[in-house]
Amino acid sequence: MESMMKDSLHPQKKKFGIWRAMFLFLGLFGTVCFLIPMRAKVYNIGGILGFVFSLCLLGGSCFLPKIAEPFSPTVKRRARLAFGLCMALLFLWAGALSGCMVYGALNSPAADTEYTVVILGSKVNGTSPSADLWQRILAAEEYLKAHPQAKAVASGGKGEGESISEAEAIRNALVDRGIEESRIYLEDRSSNTQENLSFSMEIIRENGLSQKVALVTDEYHQFRAGRIAASLGVESAAVCARTPWYIFPACWARELLALSKFCIFG
């Protein structure tokens, strides 16, 4: 009888071992991924939640047997199924939204179309563009030098910890890198992507610029920015900036949250 009881408990131990190993792997991987952006002083809601979730998985890998001990085998089995289903749905949702991000980044400008370049703002540290914003500036510089007749709108207001507006930081950097100041218009009131595009379109219409827009932002951001542009009746294309690898996990996680909100609430 004792031998039969041990045999019946063995599969349960094996299942807990698999779950603990999965928690440990995902927890360690996530902790490292989200800690690196923090070390680079990039803090956002996506990165912080990802870091906390990863720590919870690590905690689960250490204390799962203790947590599960008081419960019956039936309750444990149902809990595993429920958690497994939630994780599967979470990964499917994240995968679907990531696919949308890739799709948005593929919307390249047509060679025979005149666009107004709209550079979407990002964090400025004092007067210096953040690593993320620098990549947008470099992408805009490349496009503007390849299309010398194109005009640009530098977009972004002044936020907490910023000595100048994001628009000013973009313009100053582009001028320093050889783009004529007369080609750059400033939109320095906005605080989010919706306002970036709405306020930039006001400037474009007031100055008789092409209302077909080349959006300069990170690859992961292009899909949502393009959908917002479409909701404003604006035809847009994607000029992608390459997000620095060491801040990408936090940026990607934040965009997952923003895109989820956009898909659910519009």
What would you say this structure looks like, in words?
This protein has eight helices and seven strands. By secondary structure, it is α/β, with parallel strands linked by helices. It has two domains: 104 residues, no CATH class; 150 residues, Rossmann fold (3-Layer(aba) Sandwich), CATH 3.40.50.620. The strands form two sheets. Strands 5-4-1-6-7 form a five-stranded parallel sheet. A two-stranded antiparallel ribbon has the order 2-3. Helix 5 links the parallel strand 4 and strand 5. The longest helix is centred in the first third of the chain and has 38 residues. The termini are far apart. The N terminus is likely disordered.
User: What is the number of helices?
Assistant: 8
CATH architecture heading of the largest domain = 3-Layer(aba) Sandwich
Average pLDDT confidence is 91
Run of helices and strands = HHHEEEHEHEHEHEH
Which regions contain 5 or more consecutive residues with pLDDT less than 50?
A: 1-9
Biggest sheet features: 5 strands, parallel
- The proportion of strand residues reads 5-15%
Entry summary:
The protein is α/β, with parallel strands linked by helices and 266 residues long.
Q: What is the topology?
A:
Layout (H helix, E strand, L loop, with lengths): L1 H38 L5 H24 L4 H33 L10 E5 L3 E2 L2 E2 L1 H16 L5 E4 L10 H11 L7 E4 L5 H14 L5 E7 H13 L3 E7 L6 H18 L1
Parallel strand pairs: 1-4, 1-6, 4-5, 6-7
Antiparallel strand pairs: 2-3
List keywords for this structure.
single chain; 5-stranded parallel beta sheet; two-stranded antiparallel ribbon; 63% helix; disordered N terminus
